[in-house]
Amino acid sequence: ILAAAMQDYKRAIIIVSKQTYGKGTVQNVIDLNRWLRNNDLGDMGALKITTQKFYRVNGGSTQLEGVKSDVVVPDRYSYVDIGEKDQENPLPWDKIDAANYKIWDGYVDFDEAISNSKKRMSENEQLKLIDENAKWIKQQSEETSYSLNYNQYADNAEKEKQMAKQFDALKNYKTDLTYTSLPYEQELFTSDTILKEKRERWHESLSKDIYMQEAINVLEDMKMNNIKRGKLAESNRNPDMNN
Question: Whole-model pTM?
């Protein structure tokens, strides 16, 4: 929902696989034991009932279609059916009248930032390897039969082990980014070693996150767009600067 709002108002560039999960509904859980307290059947369980659906300011629902990515990038499960649309009996996508809203114009060359990101992503070797890994995971998920012959089973297991080794680079990848906790947290570290360890693990994980790396690249692009706009506006206010 947040991603949809940020996209509709042009306040953010969405970097994700083809779309977000696509769950745009609200469910209420009804405890049946509340209504059948004197029954002799034991615990009656609960019912989960869909009661509402979310809509974007442009009128479209986030149900099934999710939020379409501005920059499509592969992830490990790009080819595996795990979205809301792949569940049984999901509610359909629909649309209502759009709200009266105004797109934010704080960025110049918003589309250029998206184009630059797409170009960087298409040339990134790490992402190409992630895509190959996603295809392999899809292939593995479709295997439904296994040999009961031990030698054949062991042979297949060894082949899979060797195949998996080509993706070791995914675990070893590291960006050139470093992360530091805010000053107030650093003060807490002296008395809270558990918090310090958690932050160190988190920062280590972030330093390997290629998607975070690209998100920062996009922010830099948009920052430069604002700088260019500022210089252009200043130039227009002071014609003598062009002489």
Answer: 0.75
